[in-house]
Amino acid sequence: xxxxxxxxxxxxxxxxxxxxxxxxxxxxxxxxxxxxxxxxxxxxxxxxxxxxxxxxxxxxxxxxxxxxxxxxxxxxxxxxxxxxxxxxxxxxxxxxxxxxxxxxxxxxxxxxxxxxxxxxxxxxxxxxxxxxxxxxxxxxxxxxxxxxxxxxxxxxxxxxxxxxxxxxxxxxxxxxxxxxxxxxxxxxxxxxxxxxxxxxxxxxxxxxxxxxxxxxxxxxxxxxxxxxxxxxxxxxxxxxxxxxxxxxxxxxxxxxxxxxxxxxxxxxxxxxxxxxxxxxxxxxxxxxxxxxxxxxxxxxxxxxxxxxxxxxxxxxxxxxxxxxxxxxxxxxxxxxxxxxxxxxxxxxxxxxxxxxxxxxxxxxxxxxxxxxxxxxxxxxxxxxxxxxxxxxxxxxxxxxxxxxxxxxxxxxxxxxxxxxxxxxxxxxxxxxxxxxxxxxxxxxxxxxxxxxxxxxxxxxxxxxxxxxxxxxxxxxxxxxxxxxxxxxxxxxxxxxxxxxxxxxxxxxxxxxxxxxxxxxxxxxxxxxxxxxxxxxxxxxxxxxxxxxxxxxxxxxxxxxxxxxxxxxxxxxxxxxxxxxxxxxxxxxxxxxxxxxxxxxxxxxxxxxxxxxxxxxxxxxxxxxxxxxxxxxxxxxxxxxxxx
Length: 643
Hints:
The chain is mainly β. 1% of the residues lie in helices and 49% in strands. The chain folds into three domains: 15-344, Prolyl oligopeptidase, N-terminal domain (Methylamine Dehydrogenase, Chain H, 7 Propeller), CATH 2.130.10.120; 350-471, Neuraminidase; 519-643, TolB, C-terminal domain (Neuraminidase, 6 Propeller). The protein has one helix and 60 strands.
């Protein structure tokens, strides 16, 4: 699939998104080809004493750092990073550095990326790869350091001093360096580089770190190096005067001790990961069931608080946020006030809807998305490999709306909703002039229906502004007739079976056709049709079904296979010959019949759609893009739709 060629507008709703793909890595991310900078030479100190005032503290929480902190709060604003990630070989451009108010308002995209492990000092944001961000002027800069150091990575940022991992290009050696915030003075530690260099912590004059011996601590001047415990893993945090860690020698159980390792106590006898905390409560993911748990710091009131499997827990304000373990495109947050869980999606904040919310579809067709839409003397259509277009019904005012291709579309109010063929068939919308492109649902969507500001598709109902997505019991792509949903079940790869009817919320399930009946169902206004195929005669009967009485009436018999019926509209059936080379139209009463197009060798039909006054036939070619043909309803006036 091709990448989207338009500039993607910000599509983030919440802080939860910043946790996508934030799992810890054993792989060293430091790039040996990082650009060598040559700033002024700072002053090298023989002791770090001059760097410390004695009351330094971390400028992000220990628990968030244990989860590769990708967020930081400054003066009522939350700044966060969203990694670009790949889903089913398609790169999703959610990556970027964003800000929003702590209440979720005033969301804005700042730039492409600003790493992770954020710290905040004096109104500036420091991140892992040595960059500084100034929220006031949105400028990014690099800190100065000795000219022989060609790479610098912040491990910890305290109130007045930075611990950085730097690479000495002259000696080809990595060193830990304490430095002032402006980089003008520094002290080089003798502590060797750690394999797990990311997980370090600081508390009351002690630097905590994990090496092959266990959890250690040391003073900034390299003195008093002490082994705290041999049992701790990289998953640890400091809260108050206590140390909490995952014990690798006891099935990853959760332990608590004093900061020097004394007064050891087991808190949780379950395998723990992604440890975080908020005041007197600890949070973690249970490796056995993958769910999020909370427990008091004394080990009491162990409680599961999530209904889905999770990874990477981050605390921000009154929320515990995490992304789904099995699907990184799904994100969640749990209120620390009432412990309710919300599912959050990769969406921008909702745009106010217009007062006009009428659903526009081709006249006579049930409420279902289509690859061609005729609305208010405009035709919206897709040309494979060329893009999305619109033009007046008289052929004038042809306009290209987008470079990408769509699968099906629908107009609701002032917006064109569409599934993006170049982009996993996710559901998007744009203004009818092609502006304000927005992701509505990050789910594969073949077709969809709409009613009363809700969009219905397989397994979900979605607010038209993208603000809410709910799970509903719709097992296939639905059609709507009045206040009921109709769908067929794809039991296996051979086709569709039966016909199911439900209320709009997925309740009151009724079976209208035998679920063992292999058939295709068609909908025209409030009429339902389905096919019966006779393998002996190789003919297909088209039947009309009364959804109330469930009585079926034969309409017409065709000399073709049931799966070659392509469309039904206004008393006519559109179908292909058995060799799939000729498209035909036949009236129910048999008074009108006509062949539309006979294909050349190597070509095949993709779809046929009918509007109020035109027939559209999309033909696939072996070595070139598809061709979209247009006909009058009587089969005359053939035209080729061109860019």
